[in-house]
Design a protein that fits this description.
about 160 residues; Thiol Ester Dehydrase, Chain A; 8-stranded mixed β-sheet; about 35% strand
């Protein structure tokens, strides 16, 4: 495992974004680069897609030298939900199906990529994947996310601090 924590910088043409309108979301299992668990920073590409640079630290270890599947699932869930929030659609996860394709090494910079497939109606379908720079697929997920009304957002997040 490499030592040190990466900065998780964006690529040329990318701009950093924070997808959630509330401060407490920063205190989940993921956080800024430099954490020992999971570092994660969100960016919009020049084409407008939401991607996250991610890094699994030593506290995210499952099998020796590999990230725990629950950590991967957490990253995919958060990134897929973030794609909807960035698009102006507040959601909560209703169902998430994940396929783990290969073990994810610790201390390697990876990408979480998302795609909104269906946004009409009360639910959204979103897909996500975790890859490396070479395009190697480590995990992928498909999810159904429940669209929140303005009243639900107010009720659920009434005790949190705006970002």
């Amino acid at each position: 495992m490499k030592s040190g924590f990466p900065e998780l910088k964006g690529e040329p043409g990318w701009s950093e974004v924070w997808p959630f309108p509330f401060w407490e979301a920063r205190r989940s299992f993921t956080g800024p680069a430099g954490m020992e668990e999971v570092g994660m920073r969100y960016f919009k590409t020049a084409e407008g897609a939401l991607v996250a640079k991610i890094w699994f630290g030593p506290s995210a270890e499952g099998a020796p030298g590999r990230a725990h599947g629950g950590a991967l699932l957490t990253v995919l869930d958060e990134a897929m939900g973030a794609a909807a929030w960035v698009a102006g659609i507040p959601v909560l996860t209703a169902r998430l199906e994940t396929a783990f394709r290969r073990g994810v090494p610790l201390a390697v910079e990876l990408l979480a990529e998302t795609k909104l497939l269906q946004t009409g109606g009360r639910t959204l379908r979103i897909e996500g994947s975790i890859t490396d720079r070479a395009g190697t697929l480590y995990a992928q997920a498909n999810g159904v996310f429940a669209r929140l009304t303005a009243g639900q957002v107010k009720t659920i997040f009434s005790r949190v601090t705006p970002a």
